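Predict structure. Chain length: 302.
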Amino acid sequence: MKSSDREVADVLKSRYQKIAESKIAGIKSARRAELQLKLFPDWPDDRRGAPNEVIRSAIFGVVMRGRRKRVVDMPVAGPAGSSITITGWRLDQYDLDIWLEVMHLARNTKPGDPIRFTLHSILKRLHSTAHHAGANDFNWIKQRLYNLVETSIKFDDGIEEGAAGPLIAAFRIVKTTGEAELKTNPELRSLWESITHLDIEQRRSLGQNQLAKAMHAALASHVTWMPIRLDTLMARVGAEFARIRAFKAALEFVLDDFKAREWIHGYSIGRGDNGLVAIDKVRRPTQVRAAQRLRADEGDTG
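Prediction complete.
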């Protein structure tokens, strides 16, 4: 092919690619608008619905004790092919506890519609996961709500980039009674098309162990755990350890506990920072059926 012909071919290929990407973006935009009119999904009362794109990312990290960090365009690890940054507060598993509870109350509501509750009712739902005790309880919950409304998410999926806004849109609290009204963010409705049902009593039983909570969510979101590099896993759960060696020790402690609870059959961690973390998880009946459907779709009858 001549140089001039190759240049023409490259120009046409680029033009067709842009047209295709524009059409895909248009379809996705129309889909988002459609979903914003659709109710949030429902799930059993003993579960907490969590978007897979959120719990498979480091939006809610494993943050060490100390003063809370303000961040600006902070990259956080996410699913392959996506880029996520957050501006606001470095969110942790306690923030996720609060978000799971308020979104539980938002089941079967229209995105953006107000949901009402009392701070006391949220405390009762949290049980042993509450970080503080006594007079500081309400202030602790209020601060976590501020964290969620003040932290916004930017994304880039290769075709589109933009800002999805905060994890909750707005809230207000009556100071004398603790009665609260909260509005969800309609821009995030599309995330709820692929969710995991977290066993809330299992999560609560993990107390204040943030890494355990992050791993519990990560395991629940996968029908089958695919081996992952140790350093990649550390980034994926947003674990703030000074050394990977320390993260490995903490992970082994968590997985040993999961095995004792019979949540996993066993695990192995390869040598070095990039050693593979393999986990043989105990599947729920729904996950067993999902794995069977996957094998059937792949033509595996064995």
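Summary: The longest strand covers residues 70-76.
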